[in-house]
Amino acid sequence: MSAPEKVNVDEVDFFIDNDVLADPYEYLATLRGECPVRRESHHDVVMITGYDEALAIYNDPAKFSSCISVGGPFPGFPVPLEGDDISELIEQHRSELIMNDQLPTMDPPMHTAHRALLLRMITPKRLKDNETFMWRLADQQLDAILTGDRCEFNGEFATPFAMLVIADLLGVPESSHEEFRTALLSGTDIGSSSGAAMDHSPLGYLYAKFAEYIEDRRRTPRGDVLTGVASATFPDGSIPAVSDAVAVAANLFAAGQETTVRLLSFAVKHIAEDPELQARLRADRSLLPAFIEETLRFESPVRGDFRLSKVPVTVGDVDLPAGTTVMLINAALNRDPRKFAEPDVFDIDRPNARSHVAFGRGVHSCPGAPLARAEALISLQLLLDRTTDIWIDEQKHGPVDNRRYQYLPTFVLRGLTKLHIGFSLSGSDG
Description:
Blueprint: H1 18-22, H2 25-34, E1 37-39, E2 46-48, H3 51-58, E3 64-65, H4 87-93, H5 110-121, H6 124-145, E4 150-152, H7 153-169, H8 177-185, H9 201-219, H10 225-231, H11 242-273, H12 275-283, H13 288-298, E5 305-309, E6 313-315, E7 318-320, E8 325-328, H14 330-333, H15 369-385, E9 387-392, H16 394-397, E10 420-425
Parallel strand pairs: 2-8
Antiparallel strand pairs: 1-2, 3-5, 4-10, 5-8, 6-7, 9-10
Helix pairs in contact: 5-11, 6-7, 6-15, 7-8, 7-11, 9-10, 9-11, 11-12, 11-13, 11-15
């Protein structure tokens, strides 16, 4: 039998190739094998597939700007990037770049102030109260979907659950939850578009609603969570413009929802695909945290992030001129064999699984990571409690030797569009 043909990475366009969209790992491994800091030939992006090389960039905001973190090479920088220090050019044209008012695209010191504002909005007490809400909400959502013997998990559980958890965290009154569900889930969901189109109507709806809430609470404080959000200040004590407070709240709402939905979807897929793994988790729920970390490592919800080099810099013995667009490919970093032994094996006993970079690193590490972990743990524990078996619906996804899954059509995110499962209920739910 002949060996499989090696991927020619220069013939593959990572950003639009449907085969790589569904399964990027062979392409990424080949790319890393040639060089963990390698320029691709279609869009002039330097692809970072090495774990150590990526961390060097994640941890160096002085030399790498996040201004293009969402769009990368699309639609391109407004002017030519010339010179050995483009820092001033970035600041002159930042307002013209996609998602420029959102945390992921900000650089220090602006990012530092806005991230601190976010952390003032989600206090430890708020997080604790929100976790209590999660248990109640997860039970309610499971009541709704565990009515027969099958469901579409993403749309019927994960998406509404993640959305309403964030709504509660930010203080949206429960009386308005149904309005949010109708407005945000009746059409295109927040995270199902490419990075170049993420500023569409759902974010517009969120901006309008949170502007209304914040303006109202600033006029008439009520002692509720939204009043806390509205009254949060920058570290120097200054009061943010309504637009700044709105952008921070809306970013948490959109980004936090997306990560959780994809994490939950992949976690349930692994449970449903692997009876032996499922049996272990049912027998010992203390394994769930390790299972969640390995799920994040194995299938990172965010496929990658972009940076723009502000000055000439050397990464992994490769010299990069100022103005180089680099893509930090989390999906590759978390399968770097120099960091993770047998990286293509799903192993919940992996001792260093939590070293993954699914939530990024450095100043832009995801502030909602603890929230996503809590949502996953609560949801999975209750799902296992209320069922005796979970499996993949073969009518929708095909037999075990010929599965058919569809993935989000974007180079930014990694996730299943739908996950159809079957289940048997435990005695108390039957």
